[in-house]
Amino acid sequence: MVGNIRKVYDYLTVKQKKIAVAELKADRLELQQEVAECIDDYPKIVREVLLHTLDSWTLEIEQLEDDIARDHGAQM
Fold first, then answer.
1. Within 13 Å and on the Cβ side, how many CA atoms surround 63?
2. Cα–Cα dist 73/6, whole Å
3. pLDDT for residue 10
4. What residues contact 28, with CB distance under 8 A and at least 6 apart?
5. From residue 18, how far is each of 7, 12, 49 by CA, in Å?
6. N or C terminus of the chain: which is more exposed, having fewer CB within 10 Å?
7. Dist CA 28 CA 35 (whole Å)
8. How many CB atoms lie within 10 A of CB 20?
9. How many Cβ atoms from other residues are within 10 Å of residue 6's Cβ?
10. Using one digit for the tens of pLDDT, what is the confidence trace for 21-53?
11. How many helices (H) and strands (E) does the chain have?
């Protein structure tokens, strides 16, 4: 699934990528708060999925920020 999302990002403008990063960061913050407050309330498999999701979103944000920097540099 992540590979498919990466393909979609190839078609976004720098401005759209910046919006995507902002939204991902907001969602990640919300999930981080949920995990910090309630992680012990979930079964082990759900905890693993939540933590994997946090890791995936962090990686995706980093990759998008790299794309933005590269695209911005190419436009100059």
1. 13
2. 20
3. 81
4. 54, 57, 58, 61
5. 16, 10, 26
6. C
7. 10
8. 19
9. 13
10. 999 999 999 999 999 999 999 999 999 999 999
11. 3, 0
